Amino acid sequence: MTINQRTDMTNTTATGPLPQGHPPVAQPKVGVLLVNLGTPDGTDRASMRRYLAEFLSDRRVIEWPRAVWYPVLYGIVLNTRPKKSGALYDKIWNREKDESPLRTYTRSQGEKLAAALAGHDNIVVDWAMRYGNPSIESVLERMTKAGCRRIVMFPLYPQYSATTTATVNDKFFEALMKMRWQPAVRTVPAYHDEPVYIDALARSIEKHLASLDFEPEVVIASYHGIPQSYFKAGDPYHCHCQKTTRLLRERLGWDEKKLLTTFQSRFGPEEWLQPYTDKTVERLAKEGVKSVAVFNPGFVADCLETLEEIAGEVGETFHESGGTNFSHIPCLNDSEEGMAVIEEMVRRELGGWA
Ligand SMILES: C=CC1=C(C)c2cc3[nH]c(cc4nc(cc5[nH]c(cc1n2)c(C)c5CCC(=O)O)C(CCC(=O)O)=C4C)c(C)c3C=C
Ligand SMILES: [Fe+2]
Ligand SMILES: [Fe+2]
């Protein structure tokens, strides 16, 4: 769906009426395109396979040589994972809208941003996914047809990684490569240390903790992992995550024992960034920690990795290892705090354009 889209055409140019047979020209507008990771269209095997095939064929995500990776991907992963992952998506699926929570939240973020920018009548806000639907290419086409001659594209990842931010940028520029009349573009950078983001996280954590009937002894900032080898090759993601947690500690007045950094969602046999979230929670419970809260600063919206893996599996691990109270703190999603971050980052990049 396109938000705030106005397709009104003009029949004049700066020098007068359009000549006979001239292609229609839309009123010039500024587009804002929010892009998140992506999600399957359904939890059935075919939808899951299509989604995982696109995701896991991305060279930014799996850097192994294709001659080594494709036999594993097509011979093993795509024959086993679609069923397994489909069952996990089933647990968190938004049945009312028949879509994953990630898509529901991304749409809502787009709608709320459009409402916040409604004072500018030449701004079009839309949203897309790096993998699956709606694709970046299809939305970009719709935006340029609506007259967007300038586009701010926002990869929705607070911490930069080649596996996320860069691949969104790649896909966006790949779509631009096919266009005869390209818009001028800007991309929103990572914002892991922006005061508005740190403050939003702090406020949402404080709000959530105030609603609990226990006080966690330890709070864990759990980020999606990446392979260690990508970090060693120069991906700044690990440093961005560490900085977010440090700034948050300072903002909340907590020490290093109260707020930990961990990494979740390992995939494949390689070593990933450590410490791992599941192992940390297990260790804490075994050491006698009874109450823990976990939040996911690197995820702009709740999704499989936060709702199923953390709120579900990691919570179970904590209880099975002897813990008593476990709480998952929701992502910023489309909350007031979350929208304040998205809006400020977008307004900054719109400078001089709107
Ligand atoms: C080598 C594989 C993967 C890397 C590297 C990776 C990095 C990475 N991913 C996110 C955010 C999300 N990942 C999500 C799902 C997901 N991730 C991988 C693999 C890698 N991710 C897979 C195979 C999946 C699919 C689910 C599954 O089968 O387990 C999601 C959730 C999408 C949803 O619809 O809910 C998000 C979000 C980040 C931030 C990141 C690196 C920094
Ligand atoms: Fe992932
Ligand atoms: Fe680092």
Automatic annotation (TrEMBL):
Composition bias, Polar residues: 1-15
Main location: cytoplasm
Pathway: Porphyrin-containing compound metabolism; protoheme biosynthesis; protoheme from protoporphyrin-IX: step 1/1
Biological process terms in GO annotation: heme biosynthetic process
UniProt binding sites for Fe(2+): H224, E305
UniProt cross-references to PROSITE patterns, sorted A to Z: FERROCHELATASE
CDD domains per UniProt: Ferrochelatase_C, Ferrochelatase_N
Region of interest called Disordered, as start-end residue ranges on this chain: 1-25
Endpoints of the signal sequence: none
Enzyme class: lyase
Catalytic activity reported: Fe-coproporphyrin III + 2 H(+) = coproporphyrin III + Fe(2+); heme b + 2 H(+) = protoporphyrin IX + Fe(2+)
Source domain of life: Bacteria
Family of the protein in this entry: Belongs to the ferrochelatase family.
Stated role: Catalyzes the ferrous insertion into protoporphyrin IX.
HAMAP family xref list: Ferrochelatase
PANTHER family tied to this protein: FERROCHELATASE, FERROCHELATASE, MITOCHONDRIAL
Identification of the protein by name: Ferrochelatase
Organism: Aquibium oceanicum
Organismal lineage: Bacteria, Pseudomonadati, Pseudomonadota, Alphaproteobacteria, Hyphomicrobiales
Gene name for this UniProt entry: hemH
